[in-house]
Specification:
The complex is a heterodimer of chains A (about 200) and B (about 220). Chain A is an alpha+beta fold and about 200 residues long. Chain A is about 40% helix and about 25% strand. In chain A, a hairpin with a 3-residue loop joins strand 7 and strand 8. Chain B is elongated. In chain B, about 75% of the residues lie in helices and about 0% in strands. The chains are: A alpha+beta (about 200), B mainly alpha (about 220).
Chain lengths: ~200, ~220
C-alpha cells in the first residue's frame, strides 16, 4: 500500500515502482504513486537510478546489436568500392561509415564537432562547427528553444556558424541545434539534435 | 505459475530436482547477468566492489529456493527486467548497510537546512519567472524579510494546489536538480520537449497564482 503520509516510514514497493516506471498503473494509482514520489526523496532517487540503469543497459544492448549491422555496412561499402557508381552515392557512403545510428536508421549522419552536447556556454561564444560533407552540398542549421520552437535557421555552405546578434539567447535556458546537409541526388544527412545551455 | 513469466524465470521456478534447478539457474544468468552486473556497477565503487555486490545479489536471489524471484507478480503491471533492477538495487542497499551501516538515511533525514535551501531556490526560480531581478539577501531589513516570508508562504500555498505529477516534476527539476533529459523517461516521455512544455505551463500557473496573491516581482 502507498503510505498515507510521506512521514510514515514506508516507501514504494518493488511492484509499485516497477509498474510506475513501465507505465502500467491506472490513472488514479499513478497519481497516488506520483504524490508519494513528490514527497519522498529516497523513492525519487530510486526512480532516477532504476530509470537510468535501464536506459544505459538499453544503450549497451543497442551498441552490441549495432556491431553486426556495422560489419554488414562495412562489407557493403567494400563491395561498393569495386562497383562503379555515381559520385553522389560515394558521398553518402563516406557519411554512413562514421556513424552507427545512421547505419541503423538508414539516414546518413553528419559529425557535429562543437559545442559538445550538454555544454554550458556564454551567449556571445556560441559557435557551431561540424565536419564537412563532400563537395557540392548546402548545410541548413536550425536552432530551437526549450519549447521546440525554431528561433533561427539558415542555409550556408561553410561548416561553421554563429548565432546572429538579432537572435538573443537567454541566460539559463537550454537550446537545441542540428545541421542538415543537403546532398546531391535529393539526399540528406543530419547531425542529430544536440543541446547546449547558456550561462554567464 | 503465471502464464506470462519470462521463459527463463518460469523454467527456474518450475524446476524441481537439483540438477534441473542448476541448469535453469545457468539459463537465468545467461539471460540476466548483464543486467544484474550493470545494476551492481552503477551502484558505485570500483570493479571489486561491484563484483562483491553482484555475488551478494545472486545469493539474495537464490535464497530460500528463489523466494524473492517467486514474488514477481506477472500480472502485466511491469516488466520483469524493470522489477529485477528494482529488487537488485534493494539488495545492493542491504549489502551496503550490512557493511557500512545506515549512513545514507542519516544524511537524508538530517538535512533540514538543505531542504530549506532547496525550497528557497525553488522560490527564487519561480520569482524569476515573474520578473528577473536581484533576490534579496539575508541582510535585508525585518520588513523585507517578512515580505520574503510572505512570498514563500504564497509559493507553498500555490505549490499545494498543483496535481501530484506536476509537483513531482518540479521536485525532480528544482529540488533534485536533474536535467530534463533524465526526467523525461522517469515520467514517461520519450523526448525532452513535452517536459519543457509541461514545466513552462506549471511555472506559468504558479506565476499566475502568485500574481493573484499580490506578488508581481522577485523582490517582495
Amino acid at each position: 500500500m502507498i503510505p498515507a503520509s510521506p512521514t510514515d516510514d514506508f516507501h514504494l514497493s518493488a511492484d509499485q515502482l516497477t509498474a510506475y516506471v513501465d507505465r502500467a498503473l491506472s490513472v488514479s494509482e499513478r497519481s497516488s504513486v506520483a504524490a508519494h514520489l513528490a514527497d519522498c526523496r529516497p523513492c525519487r532517487q530510486e526512480l532516477a537510478e532504476v530509470t537510468q540503469t535501464l536506459r544505459e543497459r538499453q544503450d549497451q544492448k543497442r551498441r552490441t546489436v549495432g556491431i553486426p549491422t556495422a560489419v554488414a555496412a562495412a562489407a557493403a561499402i567494400l563491395l561498393f568500392v569495386y562497383v562503379p557508381s555515381p559520385p553522389q552515392d560515394q558521398a553518402t557512403s563516406v557519411l554512413r561509415t562514421g556513424d552507427e545510428a545512421g547505419e541503423q536508421t538508414g539516414v546518413p549522419e553528419l559529425v557535429a564537432l562543437t559545442p559538445a552536447s550538454g555544454a554550458a556556454l556564454r551567449a556571445d561564444s556560441v559557435e557551431f562547427v561540424w565536419r564537412a560533407a563532400p563537395d557540392g552540398v548546402v548545410y541548413r542549421i536550425t536552432l530551437a528553444d526549450e519549447s521546440g520552437e525554431i528561433v533561427w535557421t539558415e542555409e550556408i555552405s561553410d561548416t561553421t556558424a554563429r548565432v546572429p546578434p538579432e537572435v538573443p539567447l537567454e541566460l539559463g535556458r537550454s537550446y537545441f541545434w542540428f545541421v542538415d546537409a543537403l546532398l546531391r541526388g535529393a539526399r540528406s544527412a543530419t547531425t542529430g539534435v544536440r543541446e547546449f545551455r547558456v550561462q554567464e | 505459475m503465471a502464464p506470462n513469466l519470462p521463459q527463463q524465470l518460469a523454467t527456474l521456478l518450475d524446476a524441481t530436482d537439483p540438477a534441473a534447478r542448476d541448469g535453469a539457474w545457468s539459463g537465468f544468468l545467461d539471460q540476466y547477468s548483464g543486467l544484474l552486473i550493470h545494476t551492481c556497477r552503477r551502484f558505485g565503487g570500483g570493479y571489486d566492489a561491484a563484483m562483491d555486490r553482484y555475488a551478494y545479489v545472486l545469493e539474495g536471489l537464490k535464497q530460500e529456493e528463489f523466494s524473492r524471484l517467486r514474488r514477481f507478480n506477472a500480472n502485466g503491471r511491469g516488466k520483469f527486467s524493470t522489477w529485477l533492477v528494482v529488487v537488485s538495487r534493494r539488495l545492493c542497499h542491504d549489502y551496503h548497510r550490512s557493511r557500512y551501516g545506515r549512513d545514507e538515511e542519516n544524511v537524508e533525514s538530517g538535512s533540514e537546512s538543505q531542504t530549506r535551501d532547496v525550497r528557497r531556490r525553488l522560490a527564487d526560480l519561480i520569482a524569476e519567472e515573474i520578473r528577473p531581478g536581484t533576490i534579496p539577501d539575508s541582510g535585508a531589513g525585518p520588513e523585507q524579510e517578512l515580505r520574503t516570508a510572505d512570498l514563500r508562504q504564497a509559493l507553498e500555498t500555490a505549490l499545494a494546489t498543483l496535481g501530484p505529477e506536476d509537483r513531482l516534476l518540479l521536485k525532480l527539476r528544482f529540488e533534485d536538480d536533474l536535467p530534463v533529459r533524465r526526467i523525461a523517461p522517469m515520467i514517461g516521455f520519450s523526448t525532452v520537449f513535452p517536459v519543457y512544455r509541461r514545466l513552462r505551463s506549471v511555472l506559468g500557473a504558479l506565476r499566475t497564482r502568485l500574481e493573484e496573491s499580490g506578488f508581481r516581482q522577485a523582490s517582495p
